# Entry
Amino acid sequence: MKKIKIVCLGGSMEDNSSTLSILNYSAKKLNELGAETYIADIKKLDLPIFSYKALKNLKNAKFSKLVKEMSTADGYMFACPEYHGTVSSAFKNAIDFLEVLAANKPPYLSLKPVGCIALGGAEFAGHSTLNTMISIVHNLRGVAAPNSMAIGYGSTIFNKKGELTSEVIANRLTRLASELYTLAVRLRD
# Structure
């Protein structure tokens, strides 16, 4: 049986992105479960501001690779920082460029599971961003994983070595990765 393939998309425009660190941690947990992962750092995609004209004229090898990976994936993990109560413009821009997936058969992320992780700066932040991410997943015809999560104080959960310091968050990320993997297996069959 072919390995489960999960595309991880997220990060931020910051050099030391805690969102990208969370995505990398999640990918590691997915790998431990037996999944093959592909990580797309939004910053490295180097996309222009979305418009249909920009989409039509886009010649970007990194984005083309992402589209190829997404088209053959069994599931997805999205991670985004919360900026002013919603998804970052860089994350939304990358999502908008996924309009190219409309031509797929079936289109977009049809019936594929998506784990969503929102990181906010305050104690109870991230929830409105998580809701927005889930709405985006539904609009792309994907299936949002029930254990998708918002993380408050997102920039403080890693130490200077880049290690996750919260056992609670580590456990929640492990549970989300396991759920996403299980959904990908079941929805692929």
Notes: The chain has one domain: 5-188. The mean pLDDT is 94. Strands lie at 5-10, 36-41, 75-83, 86-87, 113-119, 143-144, 149-151.
